[in-house]
Amino acid sequence: MNLPDAHTHSSTAASGTAPQFICGTSPADWKQVALLAERDEHVTPFFGIHPWFLNPAEWKEEMPRLESLLQKIPHAGVGETGLDKCRRGIPGLPLQKEALERHLELAARLDRPASLHCCRAWGTLAEMLTKYPRLNIVLHGWTGALHPGTELPSGNWLLSVGLREMERPGLLASIPLHRLALESDGHPETLPELYRRAAQELGMTVNNLVDLVQSNMENLIRP
């Protein structure tokens, strides 16, 4: 499969020659993500602690390991991390914000891109990002909850859309083309249909859309 994927995971990564951003979500899968990146030059690995897997008793002790891994892999990004007010049974927003702040600070200090998850906390996330105006970020699962031109920092960011988000009328039209990315979020079998529908909605060929998304992803990691 040769379709760029701006957000996927190690358990479902597809082989091919297109760029993939493969995100680790906890120490449990960091090693697998690192191995995939080592074997495939088209993979950009990301390492972070997702709010679903944020352990209140352990996450602070895991951060030095995260930094060490990033130091060892100079082209790696930070994430998947973020904020989530949708899922039950996970730590509340105050602890999520503390952990996210540590991730953002690390990404800024090491000059790495960040892949961010957000569910019903976009305003809080946008406010936190104002402290890091130069940070390169992928906002995955973009739902159009904010006006990107005025509510996001002026840094280098991508708004990544999957097949589920495509159900929102007019979503793609609201995204500047140089900010657009497409993702499988761990379901690579959805990519052909996603690219077909997105190309049709944008009035371009699939090949041109592939070139656009690939260029946007490359500009994020090599601006």
Topology, please?
Layout: E1 5-8, E2 20-23, H1 27-39, E3 43-47, H2 59-72, E4 77-84, H3 93-110, E5 114-119, H4 122-129, E6 137-139, H5 148-151, E7 157-161, E8 180-182, H6 191-202, H7 206-221
Parallel strand pairs: 1-2, 2-3, 3-4, 4-5, 5-6, 6-7, 7-8
Helix pairs in contact: 2-3, 6-7
Low-confidence stretches: none
Q: Please work out how many helical segments DSSP would assign.
A: 7
Element order: H for helix, E for strand: EEHEHEHEHEHEEHH
Strand content is: 15-25%
CATH architecture: Alpha-Beta Barrel
Fraction of helical residues = 25-40%
General description of the model:
Pfam families: TatD_DNase. GO terms for molecular function: hydrolase activity, acting on ester bonds. InterPro entries: Metal_Hydrolase, TatD-like. β6 (137-139), α5 and β7 form a beta-alpha-beta unit. With 223 residues, this protein is of the alpha/beta class. The radius of gyration is 16 Å and the shape is globular. An eight-stranded parallel beta sheet has the order 1-2-3-4-5-6-7-8, sandwiched between helices. It is built from seven helices and eight strands, in the order ββαβαβαβαβαββαα. It has a single domain (5-221), classed as TIM Barrel, CATH 3.20.20.140. It has helices at residues 27-39, 59-72, 93-110, 122-129, 148-151, 191-202, 206-221; strands spanning 5-8, 20-23, 43-47, 77-84, 114-119, 137-139, 157-161, 180-182.
